[in-house]
Structures are given as C-alpha cells and as structure tokens.
Amino acid sequence: MITQHRNKIEYIFGATTFHSSFSDPNRRIRQHNSGQQAGGAKKTDNRGPWDMVCIVHGFPNSVSALRFEWAWQNPDKSRRLKEIVLKKSAKESQFAFRLRIVCHMLNADPWKRLAWLIPLEEIPFPADIPPPKHMVKKYGLVEKSNETVSKDPEAYQKVEDCLICSQPIEALSQFVRCQQMKLCVTHYHTRCLAEKVLKQSKEFEVAIVPIEGRCLRCHSSWRWGDLIRDQQKLLQISTVAQEQHRISNAALLIPRTL
Known about the structure:
Residues 1-84 form the GIY-YIG domain. By secondary structure, the chain is α+β, with helices and mostly antiparallel strands.
C-alpha cells in the first residue's frame, strides 16, 4: 500500500502565526498541539491550541518546499520578492501580512505553478492580489488517500513509446500521460511534452515547464502539476511492486486500471 503525500507549506495560527513545511498535515498539527517533546516546533510549544488555516502544495520535492518557506519567512531577503518591498502596515495584523506575502508569492515565478488549499473556511485573497486564473483553490479538511498495489503481474502494462519523438520511454521519472486514462492511452517523455507545449505557447525561452496544455491526440486539457502528481504516484506504485511484490520489470510498468 502506498500513501499519497505531497510536499507542502503550512500556515497555522493561534495567538500568533507560524508556517513550516511538512508531508503529513494531520500528523504535523498534532505535533504542534502536543508540544516540543512530541515533535512540535519550539516556537509553538505551550502556545496553542493551533489551527491550520491554509496550505500551499504541489511542490516537486522537499527542497523546493523549503525554499518557498524561507522566502515566505524572509521576503526582504528573497530575490524574488525584495523588489516588491513588502512591509507590514500599522493597522495590519500579523496574519493578514503573512497572507498578503504568500499571495504575492503565488503570483510570482516559479511558485505561480503551485496549488492552494484553505481548510475549514474560505479566507479570501486580498482584492488587489488575486491568484493566477489557472490555480485551483479548495476548501475543506485535508484527506489522506491510500492506494493498494496489486501483487498480480497481469494487473500491469508496459509504457508506450512517446507520441512526440516515437522513442521508448526508459524510466517512469521521464514519463507523463494524458489524464483521460479511460479514453486515451497517449504517453510522452516529460521533456518532449514540456518543450512542445512551451513552443506552442511561445514560452520556450522564458519557462522550463508549462502551466497547462492539451493532449496532442485527444485534445483534452491538463495542468502540468496534475501530470507530475500522476507520475509521482506511478513511481511509488512501481517501487512497491518491484521491492515488495517482486514483480519483474516493474520499473517500466504501470497499472492497467489506474
């Protein structure tokens, strides 16, 4: 069984504000409310109860999440933000100021390609700093999803050649696919698809990956973050299938029904 995590930045508040990176939101909030001896931060020890009020997620790895966290904590030192000159106004609460900072961050490269989640209640963006149009905002509780990995070799299939270059895809870390899995079985090299879409949108000289695009075969739309999230899930499944279930060649197999 695999558990779906993504690197995230949390923003929690009680009598003051605090933000940090984590992979399991439910576990992390319990640690903060249980104190430093249970793994919570020194800054939050004996100052609760704490509530989690917003989450930024979709980071490709923990390093990028930690860089985002540092920039959020140090907007005056971040080369991405220091030109904006973000300063707290006299009438602005600490929470409102931190929310304003992150709103600016979510509209700046490279972070404007991430996702956004506000648990429990809708906290609006400042009117003068709306989120990018492609950014999906969700409201509600954070849910953990589990995926059972089949032990049956017949439950898997080989990855197809890349539609763009017609060459074999040699690793799942180089693989993305159309998200209409029941209707379209188109597979791509990550690099081939990114370059193709960036050239079509005339962003090839200024960006490494696109924000969104369409399948070159069925023309269904996708967001790049969803393609990479799917890729990471398949990599986890492949690791379990190969290391725990001893399925041969699992490194280049994907589930037939996922």
